[in-house]
Write a structure and sequence with these properties.
Blueprint (H helix, E strand, L loop, with lengths): L2 E6 L4 H12 L6 E8 L2 E8 L2 H11 L6 E7 L14 E2 L5 E9 L2 H10 L11 H8 L6 H11 L2 E9 L6 E6 L4 E4 L4 E4 L11 E4 L4 E6 L2 E6 L4 E2 L3 E3 L4 H5 L6 H7 L1 H9 L17 H6 L2 E6 L1 H18 L3 E5 H4 L10 E7 L5 H12 L3 E6 L5 H5 L2 E4 L12 H21 L4 H22 L2 H10 L6 E5 L3 H16 L3 E5 L16 E6 L5 H13 L3 E7 L3 H6 L2 E5 L8 H18 L18
Parallel strand pairs: 16-17, 16-18, 18-19, 19-20, 21-22, 21-23, 23-24, 24-25
Antiparallel strand pairs: 1-4, 1-10, 2-3, 2-4, 5-6, 6-7, 7-8, 8-12, 9-10, 9-11, 11-15, 12-13, 13-14
The chain binds 5-amino-5-deoxy-1-O-phosphono-D-mannitol.
């Protein structure tokens, strides 16, 4: 997720772009840059780091006066967050400048061809491909070249482009990533979201997928990719600036729960090939995947729960033994790792001190280390031998939500990738699984359509005391995650437990009034989970159950039910966690708590 903004009109563009970027900083803050048209062509200033660094550079170089410009704040997906990789990007002749939000899936193929044709690339980004593609069509009007470019690229993208010979024009285009057109009086705007331009205009229109827009000071023209004109529907925005930054949601946490379908789409982009195999952009060759004889997963908090799900998937699909450890325990217990061990450090931030130290320890013992993280070039990404990124975009809420579901899918893909290369799973099953994984963004979208009902269930339980979250097999990590969400944002004592283990002690705590949340989606353990839930009910617990569509058996015993779309057992956790996030959220809100900044917690824990 990155933020883009554009302005064309009689006023100097620079302060408008900077203000817009500051409002978009929540979408990414690895680097920032602007391009402003001036008498000699396109002036570009860009910097690694936050917008403040860009502002100092502009103070240093005198900035720009021009009235046409584009800006970008980056959340790195391809290439480290340095100045070279910062946007805008340019072609060889420096005629074109482009900013981009999204992921171009076929960029390597396009880049190889452009390099073969003599183009010189300076950055590691996928975006630079777009500038060179436009250069190859410099004889065409910019909008026409952009339409052709859109037909050549696969993936999600929103772009804004300026070109030397069109000093009063910005061309925008969109597929899969947001782009808003702002309508002013003798001036117009482009932006990733409303907040970036709301202080200048309240009249806006959303650009639809596969549309190209030409924006000048006094005109906005939208076409489809064949050049046929399309009318832009505009409306008046009533939000204030603060709620616009949260996309109209009350909190970042709720916004991030609703961003999960897009985060999943971005994380999966280009990682399932035409044959239905997982294709991973990591330094872990098929030979290496075959050579490991053991896997360790080390992580903390929510990432630990994703790692635990990963253990189930890797063991089941690759038949390799997997150990999972809380990172702060791992390095002090003298674990047995050697050159044939793969140690996976999971961390959304990539900076958690305990997980980083565990990875360093494993590396020193000769293990091959893999980091999965959401932050490009984070300490873990740099420390590990290989890195597999989630692409959830920045997560502002302290409670992990969208990064968790993305961690789940990268673990599923990693397990399938290794299973394929180890020959431990047949092609048909791999395809079945990757098809199911590819459906997840849509299914989470579908599930979120009934978010209001799920939130209402949470609100009904706002005065709940102790809560047990129970699950078996792959639903156990989700039970742990449901309990952690409730603890951290609603300050409620909650325990996640394997349902079959309750009878060995904790069942003594079950009495009338205790709420038990059962994660009981379709699985080979379903009937066993139901028996365990019956045991809870028999002792007076009230049962809230998260089940798969069409599950009539659970309906017989549950007091309340949340139905999920169907998914294979090892894929289902991505769906079953969503209602538990909403459940915790609703209880916390009903209690008037700050869900984005819960007490005593920090988003990134860099102390041991
Ligand atoms: O950045 P990490 O994934 O390494 O963070 C690990 C934990 O600190 C984190 O998951 C924490 O438990 C969250 N607050 C969970 O919502």
């Amino acid at each position: 997720m990155c933020g883009i903004v554009g302005y064309v009109g009689p006023r100097p563009a620079q302060p408008i772009l900077i203000e817009g970027l500051e409002r978009l900083e929540y979408r990414g803050y690895d680097s920032a840059g602007i391009a402003v048209m001036h008498s000699d062509g396109v002036g570009i200033t860009k910097n690694a780091g936050r917008i403040a660094a860009l502002v100092s550079s502009l103070e240093g170089n005198g900035g720009y006066e021009g009235g046409t410009g584009i800006g970008h704040t980056r959340w790195a997906t391809h290439g480290p967050p340095n100045t070279t990789n910062a946007h805008p990007h340019q072609d060889c002749s420096h005629d074109v400048a482009i900013v981009h939000n999204g992921i171009i899936e076929n960029f390597q193929e396009l880049k190889d061809k452009l390099i073969a044709d003599g183009h010189e690339f300076v950055s590691d980004t996928d975006t630079e491909v777009l500038a060179h593609l436009l250069e190859t069509m410099s004889e065409l009007p910019l909008a026409e070249a952009t339409r052709s470019m859109m037909k050549m690229v696969e993936g999600a993208l929103a772009v804004a482009v300026v070109r030397r010979e069109d000093p009063s024009l910005i061309v925008g285009a969109r597929r899969g990533s947001p782009l808003i057109v702002g309508v002013g009086d003798g001036e117009n705007y482009l932006a990733s979201d409303i907040s970036a331009i709301l202080s200048h205009t309240k009249t806006m229109g959303v650009l639809e997928d596969d549309r190209v827009v030409e924006v000048t000071a006094d005109g906005i023209t939208v076409t489809d990719l064949d050049g046929a004109p399309i009318e832009l529907a505009t409306r008046e925005i009533e939000w204030d600036l603060e709620s616009a930054e949260r996309g109209g949601f009350d909190d970042f946490m709720l916004k991030e729960i609703f961003e999960q379908p897009q985060a999943l789409r971005d994380t999966l982009a280009g990682r399932i090939n035409q044959r239905g195999e997982a294709e991973l952009d990591i330094a872990l060759s098929p030979q290496m995947a075959r050579a490991f004889d053991k896997v360790f997963v080390v992580a903390c908090g929510t990432s630990y729960h994703a790692g635990l799900m990963g253990k189930y998937a890797i063991e089941r699909w690759t038949r390799m033994p997997v150990e999972i450890d809380i990172a702060s325990e791992f390095r002090y217990r003298d674990p047995v790792v050697d050159g044939k061990t793969l140690v996976i450090g999971m961390s959304q931030s990539g900076e958690t001190a305990d997980t980083l130290a565990a990875l360093q320890y494993a590396k020193a013992q000769g293990a091959y280390t893999l980091a999965t993280t959401n932050v490009v070039d984070s300490s873990m990404a740099r420390e590990a031998d290989a890195v597999l990124y989630t692409r959830a975009g920045p997560e502002i809420g302290v409670a992990s939500t969208k990064t968790f579901v993305c961690q789940l899918v990268v673990m599923q893909l990693l397990a399938l990738y290794m299973a394929h290369h180890r020959g431990s799973l047949d092609d048909a099953t791999i395809q079945l699984m990757t098809n199911a994984i590819a459906r997840l963004p849509e299914q989470v979208d579908e599930l979120l359509l009934s978010a209001d009902e799920q939130l209402a269930i949470g609100r009904r339980h706002a005065d709940v005391g102790d809560v047990f979250f129970l699950g078996r097999g792959v639903s156990f990590p989700i039970a742990l995650e449901g309990a952690l969400k409730l603890k951290e944002i609603a300050y409620t004592r909650a325990e996640g437990y394997p349902a079959g283990e309750m009878k060995h002690g904790p069942i003594a705590l079950i009495e009338p009034g205790v709420l038990v949340v059962g994660v009981a989606t379709a699985s080979h353990l379903h009937l066993k989970t139901l028996s365990n839930m019956e045991e809870m009910k028999a002792r007076g617990a009230s049962l809230l159950m998260v089940v798969s569509e069409g599950d009539d058996e659970s309906a017989r015993i549950a007091d309340e039910l949340i139905y999920l779309p169907p998914a294979p057992e090892l894929v289902s956790p991505v769906l079953s966690v969503v209602p538990l996030q909403l459940f915790a959220y609703a209880i916390a809100k009903q209690r008037g708590l700050d869900v984005d900044k819960p007490r005593n917690l920090a988003k990134t824990v860099t102390v041991e």
